[in-house]
């Protein structure tokens, strides 16, 4: 029996195991923090993690960290690509 071929990526996309392992520390409810909250430790840790991820992605593609923007989804990314500016 062969494994089913999943084609409904619009509904959800299977997570690569390496991505899951990289995200595992941040999926723990104790690690939740708003990276824009500058007045508490969970916010600082979240901001540091995002900055590290931004630097890692930039290094992979030969960009500067300031050129890497993360969005919350396709609509936000499409608007950013079409309208420009920064996602805020």
UniProtKB/TrEMBL annotation:
<dbReference type="InterPro" id="IPR015421">
    <property type="entry name" value="PyrdxlP-dep_Trfase_major"/>
</dbReference>
<keyword id="KW-0663">Pyridoxal phosphate</keyword>
<comment type="similarity">
    <text>Belongs to the class-V pyridoxal-phosphate-dependent aminotransferase family. NifS/IscS subfamily.</text>
</comment>
<protein>
    <submittedName>
        <fullName>Cysteine desulfurase</fullName>
    </submittedName>
</protein>
<dbReference type="InterPro" id="IPR015422">
    <property type="entry name" value="PyrdxlP-dep_Trfase_small"/>
</dbReference>
<feature type="domain" description="Aminotransferase class V">
    <location>
        <begin position="6"/>
        <end position="83"/>
    </location>
</feature>
<dbReference type="Pfam" id="PF00266">
    <property type="entry name" value="Aminotran_5"/>
</dbReference>
<dbReference type="InterPro" id="IPR000192">
    <property type="entry name" value="Aminotrans_V_dom"/>
</dbReference>
<dbReference type="GO" id="GO:0031071">
    <property type="term" value="F:cysteine desulfurase activity"/>
</dbReference>
<dbReference type="InterPro" id="IPR015424">
    <property type="entry name" value="PyrdxlP-dep_Trfase"/>
</dbReference>
